[in-house]
Fold this protein.
Amino acid sequence: MSAAAGLNPLRRSMVGHGALILLIGMLAGVGLLVSLLGGMEVWPGTIWPLHLPGATDAWVRTHLGGMLNGILIMVVALVLPVVGFDVSGARKISWMLVGTGWANTLFYWAALLSPNRALTFGDNRFGVTNLAAVLGLAPALLFTVVSIVAVAMLARQAFAK
């Protein structure tokens, strides 16, 4: 079996996780629409009022951030054999980026429910903290570092002789 073929189950898993994260980001687009309109149009010219938590700009971040995280995971899954990762290295990159995608997804949704935008564990200039802020920020902070290491590993492997 070739090295690329050995990566296929891992790559399929990454595409699956990326697609789910992408889907959640796309569904946040419905929240963005409702936030912009103040409701949902059920018939042309008829908008049923509906209030969702979170500011419109937070819905934009949740929508776009989720889609970009999902796409990142799927693109990396496709390029793993091109940059020459073996199965062990690909496993590391996989858990690092899939973990980042899910941590960021949790962060974006928690920020919708957090007066402080889930940017700090305590109160900040945007508002007070709450449980959603803590639950969203903790994994996002950890995986911020993890994702930087993963991208550095990708770059190093891509330029390796």
About this structure: The beta strands are 39-43, 46-49. The mean pLDDT is 95. Residues 3-37 form the longest helix (35 residues).
